[in-house]
Amino acid sequence: MAKVSCRKAFTAKLLELARENEKIYAVATDSRGSVTIGKFAEEFPKRFIECGIAEQNAVGVASGLAKDGNNVFVTGPACFLAARAFEQVKVDVAYNKTNVKIIGVSSGVSYGPLGGTHTSLHDYASMRALANMLVLAPSDNVQTEYLTEYLANTDHPTYMRMGRGDVEGVYEPGESFEVGKAKQVCDGMDITIIACGEMVIVAKKAAELLKEQGISARVLDMFTVKPLDEESVIKAAKETKGIITLEEHSIYGGLGEAVTHVVSEYAPAKVKILGFPDEEIKIGNSKELFGHYGLTPENVAAVAGKLLQ
Amino acid sequence: MDLKKIAFDRRLDVLEMVYSKKSGHIGGSMSCMDILTSLYYSVMDIQKIKDHDEDRDRFILSKGHCSEALYTVLADCGFFDKAELETYTRFGTKLAEHPTKGINGIEIATGALGHGLSAAVGMAISLKNRGSAAHVYVLMGDGEQAEGSVWEATMAAAKFGLDNLTMIIDRNRLQISGGTEDVMPLDNLAEKYGAFGCHVVTCNGHDYGELIPALKEGKSKQPTVVIADTIKGYGSSVMENKADWHHNIPTAEEYEQIKADLTKKGMEVS
Ligand SMILES: [Mg+2]
Questions:
Q1: Residues of CATH 3.40.50.970 domain(s) within chain A?
Q2: CA distances (Å), A172 to each of A1, A5, A290, in order?
Q3: For position A215, what pLDDT does the model report?
Q4: Any CB–CB contact under 8 A between A67 and chain B?
Q5: Fold of the CATH domain A4-167
Q6: Closest residue by Cα to residue A156 from A215, A108, A233, A97
Q7: Which residues of chain B are within 8 Å of residue A72 when distances are taken between CB atoms?
Q8: Which residues of A touch B152 (CB under 8 A)?
């Protein structure tokens, strides 16, 4: 399948939607290049609100635009939108329940070579903790297009994060999804791998490796990080012999802890959380960092083998 | 009725709320009351606000800790039943110590300082884009001026030429821990806003003859800033110009004195 970055899939879809819906606004933070939203700016200059390098104001302005009946997408690097502007997200978006979609791009360790200032490995944790927030992490371009269209038709405060690089497709065009429901990428009865965002393709490949070893792994794409599809998690805990979670995020407060919460409360089972450890992350590109921290198909398969022993 | 008299009556309402519920920010509520009275009883078309007309003027209380001042005005103007003031800060109320959403007349919940202006900028951009003649007013504290987001938003207001936006500063020269000039100096506030591209008017924030024209003033393609010189705790010598009265709760004795002072001043102007 084609390799396309989620951010480009998002901006192409948003442009298409903005042509049909004049209530769609895009707010930028000197980020039109990194977000790839230049065409929107050219075609809809009045609905493209460039706030400069001022993320707090950008999110606040978005809330005001939304309060006048608009559907507002604030775009910029996830590291800044989910940290610098966090109080504005908490108050102006979540608490005020405004129709604002925070679109964090180049998330996780996409900017790994830029250092720890540019990582966003805390955003699921912080955004999940805000009442009223929908938290999304698409796994590929097909799902990103679906979610972008979904967000154009809902007024729910949302945080959606996407990586920077091209990602291998998980889905064929036209695949259907349901927000709030895990998408089963492959079925299996021995073990379940629950992943989100661009870790889904890693999980899928791990399942292929496990298949060669005679282990059948269920892969769940938990693109709706919040609200979590508890039913699928409970089902996995009961039907398979263990769960591995996989995310481009700190092992604290993200998908792994969300899954563990549900499992420990409703269906105790073995869970192994894979993500970034609670330490200063090394400098390197995504591929190098995924390799170093064990976020690879090979390591996931090895962890699965151990869990089943 | 005379606006000054209305404002003293509302100050008495604030006193009752703060004293009976033992919560609130009385000093700032007293200093900004004439500004609120000017807007709600004179400058804005409040019928449109009540009707939630899409071309209604917008008011945002960015210094959200003075919610009780706004609640008394909204209740008196008929946005909600005056009896609801009795629930102020009580369990399950809509009327928190900072304006919450879901109250008729509250455009956006505020309380974390430095947020209101950004929201006002967003509203003003949208109103302008759809050709609405509505105006956006936002009231900030002077201590609030230390928030960096205020200046991010001011730059944006100037960039987008928002002549449908008026930023009002309740310049009472005090904040929670003392004088603004000691905590974070602001004295060239008018110059600062001028340098950021705004049209700046300074006025006496307790003189309706100055305040109302200032609130109506505007300049094409520029946001207007009204620096309203006020007195924190205005209306009673118990509170006036005393930093402690940012959020002091009056004792029984102080309550009686403040009540007598406000009543007397109200009678003097009516
Ligand atoms: Mg002050």
A1: 4-167
A2: 7, 15, 25
A3: 97
A4: yes
A5: Rossmann fold (3.40.50)
A6: A97
A7: 122
A8: 51-52, 54, 56-57
ipTM of the complex: 0.97
The size of chain B, in residues, is: 270
B-chain residue closest to A22, CA distance: B130
- Confidence at residue A2, expressed as pLDDT on a 0 to 100 scale: 63
Per-residue pLDDT tens digits for A287-309: 999 999 999 999 999 999 999 99
What residue ranges of chain A are covered by domains with CATH 3.40.50.920? 183-308
Question: What averages of pLDDT result for each successive group of 10 residues across chain B (270 residues)?
Answer: 95 97 96 98 97 98 98 98 96 95 95 98 98 98 98 98 98 96 95 98 98 97 98 97 93 98 94
Q: For position A244, what pLDDT does the model report?
A: 98
Q: Which residues form the domain of B115?
A: 3-269
What's the total number of domains in chain B? 1
Looking at CA atoms only, how far is residue A66 from chain B in angstroms? 8
How far from B202 is each of A46, B59, B146, B214, CA to CA, in Å?
A: 32, 20, 19, 8
Would you identify the CATH topology of the domain A183-308? Rossmann fold (3.40.50)
pLDDT exceeds cutoff 90 at A4: no
- Picking from A15-19, A27-31, B38-42, B266-270, which range would have the lowest pLDDT averaged per residue? B266-270
**Cβ contacts of B242 within 8 Å, gap of 6 or more:** B27, B174, B232, B233
Of B54, B109, B120, the CB nearest to A64: B120
The CATH number of the domain holding residue B85 is 3.40.50.970
Q: How far is B102 from chain A (nearest CA, A)?
A: 9
Helices (H), B22-169: 26-38, 46-50, 67-76, 116-129, 148-159
C-alpha Rg value of chain B to the nearest Å? 17
